[in-house]
């Protein structure tokens, strides 16, 4: 498997501290990519995102040193346990009654297959050129109040958008004793681009631009150029939050 990537993480124009963390590592057979966005407005979001990065880093070092690799499915389970361990660390560190957490969007590539882990509202998109048409779509679902059907049943769109809970996270790493994390996986059938980002990117860069630049990257392999254009768009629109992005192209 051939893997290319580029990444950036910045504080933006309005934030004094960057509470996001990134992890990106590859070898000739596999790759792990993580975006963790520390929850602002609560206790030490930077600590929470940093723990996810550190647990991923420790696992990767062990994975590299291991003489026998467990295979794709077993590794996906190991990574689930790694993120759960980070969840336990963050939760146990938080004072009683406090909230400390981070979102998670992670991509694992190995043996011509991929797995995506998601918790919170950081996102993973996928772009690929199909047989008949190009495909670009958001792979992950935002874990926010308005996306829970039981919360909005019988409400109008205006009522939903005016609700005090609109946009509030309902899941994050570290806010509960046990981690609730979505996982999806599939085979890698063609040259594919994965775009992982925090909400500080997609809230300030329209999907149509992410789509256009994703296909530009997929066609040209100019990942750094596309990442810079996305960053520029975010800053032109105010860059009101920390912004973190990873672009990955994988092919067999």
Characterise this structure.
The chain has 252 residues and is α+β, with helices and mostly antiparallel strands. It has a single domain, classed as PPM-type phosphatase domain (Phosphatase 2c, domain 1, 4-Layer Sandwich), CATH 3.60.40.10. Helices cover 34% and strands 28% of the residues. The protein contains 7 helices and 10 strands. The strands form 2 sheets. A 5-stranded antiparallel sheet has the order 1-10-9-6-7. A 5-stranded antiparallel sheet has the order 2-3-4-5-8, with helices on one face. Strand 6 and strand 7 (134-138) form a beta hairpin. Helix 1 (45-65) packs antiparallel against helix 2 (72-93). 39% of the residues are buried. The model has no long low-confidence stretch (mean pLDDT 94).
What's the layout of helices and strands?
Elements: E1 2-10, E2 20-26, E3 30-37, H1 45-65, H2 72-93, E4 104-110, E5 113-119, E6 123-129, E7 134-138, H3 149-152, H4 157-162, E8 182-187, E9 192-197, H5 199-202, H6 207-220, H7 223-236, E10 243-251
Antiparallel strand pairs: 1-10, 2-3, 3-4, 4-5, 5-8, 6-7, 6-9, 9-10
């Amino acid at each position: 498997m051939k893997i290319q990537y580029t990444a950036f993480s910045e504080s933006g124009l309005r934030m004094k501290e960057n509470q996001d963390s990134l992890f990106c590592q590859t070898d000739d057979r596999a790759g792990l990519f993580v975006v963790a966005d520390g929850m602002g407005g609560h206790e030490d979001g930077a600590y929470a995102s940093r723990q996810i990065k550190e647990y991923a880093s420790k696992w990767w070092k062990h994975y590299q040193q291991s003489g026998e690799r467990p295979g794709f499915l077993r590794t996906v389970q190991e990574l689930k346990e790694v993120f759960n361990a980070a969840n336990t660390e963050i939760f146990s560190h938080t004072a009683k009654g406090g909230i400390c957490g981070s979102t998670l969007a992670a991509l694992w590539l190995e043996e011509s297959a991929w797995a995506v882990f998601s918790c919170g509202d950081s996102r993973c998109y996928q772009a690929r050129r199909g047989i008949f048409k190009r495909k670009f779509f958001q792979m992950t679902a935002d874990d926010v109040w308005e996306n829970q059907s039981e919360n909005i049943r019988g409400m109008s769109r205006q009522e939903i958008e005016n609700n005090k809970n609109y946009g509030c996270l309902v899941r994050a790493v570290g806010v509960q004793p046990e981690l609730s994390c979505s996982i999806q996986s599939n085979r890698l059938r063609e040259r594919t681009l994965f775009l992982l980002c925090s909400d500080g990117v997609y809230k300030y860069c329209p999907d149509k631009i992410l789509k256009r630049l994703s296909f530009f990257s997929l066609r040209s392999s100019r990942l750094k150029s596309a990442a810079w254009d996305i960053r520029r768009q975010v800053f032109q629109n105010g860059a009101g939050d920390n912004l973190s992005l990873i672009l990955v192209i994988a092919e067999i």
